[in-house]
Amino acid sequence: MDKLQLAHDVMKSAHKGQFRKDGITPYSIHPETVVKNLKLLGVTDSDVLCAGYLHDVLEDTDYTAEKIQENFGDIVLSIVKELTFDDGITDEQYWTECQNMSDDAKRVKVADILTNLGDKGEKSSHFVTKRVEALKRLLCDLEL
Predict the structure, then answer these.
(1) What sign does the dihedral 33-39-41-43 (CA atoms) show?
(2) N or C: which terminal CB in the chain sees fewer CB atoms within 10 Å?
(3) Which residues 6+ apart lie within 8 Å of 144 measured at CB?
(4) Looking at the 3D structure of the chain, how many domains does it have?
């Protein structure tokens, strides 16, 4: 099995039984859409695409950093860790820290933001404003 297929399978298993905020959509649709958006942005690097599938597993599941490293290597683990929200910081600090991420993590974050903005359902103006501001900053940093 290739690494990208394994990342997809691990993500599906890790997020099994989880749903998006609408309570209907399986959570796995989110990382699948993130990877589709990465591909639309021209990303072909398998480590970045694997990280797209796995970007929420440390934050939202029992899947461990050790398992990511064992199955996908240091690069994928590093990207996923950069994207994992630290409960010890504020949302504002997280969005500021996004500017210090590696370019690979920024690419995944851009795809993640685009996916979140495209989700169905009501979004507060604060939610949209914060993500659009972050998206603009990240896009300025990247040569996509």
Answers:
(1) positive
(2) N
(3) 41, 42, 107, 110
(4) 1
Q: Of 59, 74, 91, 103, which one is the catalytic site residue?
A: 59
Residues 87 and 67: their CA atoms lie apart, in Å, by 21
Which is more confident, 122 or 18?
18
Mind listing the pLDDT tens digit for each residue in 52-107?
999 999 999 999 999 999 999 999 999 999 999 888 888 788 878 888 999 999 99
User: 90 CB contacts (<8 Å, ≥6 apart)?
Assistant: none
Q: Which domain holds residue 29?
A: 3-141
pTM of the model: 0.89
Indicate if 60 belongs to the active site. yes
CATH number at residue 61: 1.10.3210.10
Q: Which two tokens stand for residue 84?
A: 């994992």
Half-sphere exposure of residue 57: CA atoms within 13 angstroms, side-chain side: 29
